Fold this protein.
Amino acid sequence: MGKIAFVFPGQGSQVVGMGQDLANEYIEVASIFNKADLKLEESLSSLIFNGPQDILTKTTNAQPALLTTSIAILEKFKESGITPDYVAGHSLGEYSALVAADVLAFEDAVYLVRKRGEFMEEAVPAGQGTMAAVLGMESSLLEDITKSVEVDGDPVQLANINCPGQIVISGSARGVELASLLAKEKGAKRVIPLEVSGPFHSSLMRPAAERFTEVLSHCNLQDATIPMIANVTAEPLTEGDVIKDKLVEQLYSPVRWEESVLKMIELGVDTFVEIGPGKVLSGLIKKTNRKVTTHAINDLDSLHSTIQSLKGVN
């Protein structure tokens, strides 16, 4: 086997009941949910386990909920002795990666993502910004389209470059609408409007980034014990101060996920372990390179099967 990367999902993967079977089974998993409740001074765990889904999906709740669930699962998985050579996360998932790489303490991370979610929701009035997934179009052509729309004063940019043929654009409602129409005219297979609470990873998030800079300045980020492939650069980072700057930049910059996956493969990774709810990243990774091995750990069964597979146990 070559090198292993642990990858962590971002917003959109949340679902009521995530992590509950593991929390019921293992005290070390339950303790992570308890730590989140104490740090945020509310019962986040009750919302995660019992819902309702619409409240869990709110950005301010979904972000700490996903981080908490991912780290709770990681806490148990670490007992297997399987360690990564690299870590990465998709947008919000980058914070789970930073906890895994000992850059951030879990309690600091859960506080940071709660504030991050608040600032992102408050940056743009409801209905003024949005996002859309564009399928079947090259990123260079789509970027030309967004730039042509912006010339007329309607902000819209590439937000998530997920895998070949799947790119998310983000910006003002009008900017995204115009770019979507142009993309379809120029050959995009499909354009799917997304149900989101704001234009994430666009220039409209700069006010959120400014506010987040202040909160982040009071947090101590250690140097990483495991290199993290950053969303903003698709390159490995280890220095805490550099990572801090990139976390601010990440709010208004595209998530270069496809490039991040290709970089990890270039560095020798042939096995990706997705830790957290869902299997979204595993799907994106397979669409980027079908030859690599992917595992997704999101419940008790997948935890055991992944450990058995990676350790070669029958």
